[in-house]
């Protein structure tokens, strides 16, 4: 039995109270959140603007949770390394944005971080399978990146199944992560398809008790 990982997205949290919002989902292993998902948006790669390195640096001092930084930005080849050097646990860049994602992943790992690759819902996985050995996480987007609270796109589960198969047959070691529209209604289908780590924004921070929402999602995601 694989213990699913839960990564609440602070995109749905109160940005004026980030330390408290991180504490609200923290807890002992297997109970609290595994990672805290941080959506960095630049208003160019996606039509929304959120936060950047200074906020991540402050957040690193405010929580012990590993930060899972999801960079929805142009020119990650130039900017991603700063997040790794600051101490982010995992730094994920979009394959649609990076010029040389494999070289970037190597640099992220050399700087002490895990390296993640993210693909948008319409981006096929096949052309990138050979490069996945350079990454620690594969973030499959199940909504168009840019906004929280959107509806889950079930078609992307085919990519999850492919990645799961490659991991289970020993061809890959990458951790399969899903992001967008994950809630009590969608988490089971994602788990069945083979997701290891579930990002959830509104389903966690929109709940009265975010800590309880994390536990509830993990229970439903057991496979
Ligand atoms: C969307 C972000 C997601 C977002 C998910 O571009 O990458 O991490 O916070 O929010 P929900 O869980 O509400 O779909
Ligand atoms: Zn995200």
TrEMBL record:
Its EC number is 5.1.3.1. It catalyses: D-ribulose 5-phosphate = D-xylulose 5-phosphate. Keywords: Carbohydrate metabolism, Cobalt, Isomerase, Manganese, Metal-binding, Zinc. Binds 1 divalent metal cation per subunit. The active site is at 39 (proton acceptor), 179 (proton donor). It comes from the Bacteria. Substrate binds at residues 9, 70, 146-149, 179-181, 201-202. GO terms for molecular function: D-ribulose-phosphate 3-epimerase activity; metal ion binding. InterPro entries: Aldolase_TIM, Ribul_P_3_epim, Ribul_P_3_epim-like, RibuloseP-bd_barrel. HAMAP family: RPE. This is Ribulose-phosphate 3-epimerase.
């Amino acid at each position: 039995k694989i213990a699913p990982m839960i990564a609440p997205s602070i995109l749905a949290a109160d940005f004026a109270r980030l330390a408290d919002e991180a504490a609200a989902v923290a807890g002992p292993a297997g109970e609290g959140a595994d990672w805290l998902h941080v959506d960095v948006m630049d208003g160019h790669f996606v039509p929304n603007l959120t936060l950047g390195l200074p906020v991540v640096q402050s957040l690193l001092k405010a929580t012990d949770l590993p930060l899972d930084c999801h960079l929805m930005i142009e020119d990650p080849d130039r900017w991603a390394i700063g997040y790794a050097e600051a101490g982010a646990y995992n730094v994920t860049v979009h394959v649609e944005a990076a010029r040389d994602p494999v070289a970037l992943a190597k640099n992220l790992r050399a700087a002490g971080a895990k390296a993640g690759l993210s693909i948008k819902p319409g981006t096929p996985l096949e052309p990138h399978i050979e490069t996945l050995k350079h990454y620690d996480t594969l973030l499959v987007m199940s909504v168009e990146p840019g906004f929280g609270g959107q509806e889950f796109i079930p078609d992307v589960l085919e990519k999850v199944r492919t990645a799961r198969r490659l991991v289970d047959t020993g061809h890959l070691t990458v951790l399969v992560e899903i992001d967008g529209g994950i809630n009590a209604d969608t988490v089971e289908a994602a788990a069945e398809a083979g997701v290891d780590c579930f990002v959830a924004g509104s389903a966690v921070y929109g709940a009265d008790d975010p800590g309880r929402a994390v536990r509830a999602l993990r229970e439903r995601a057991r496979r």
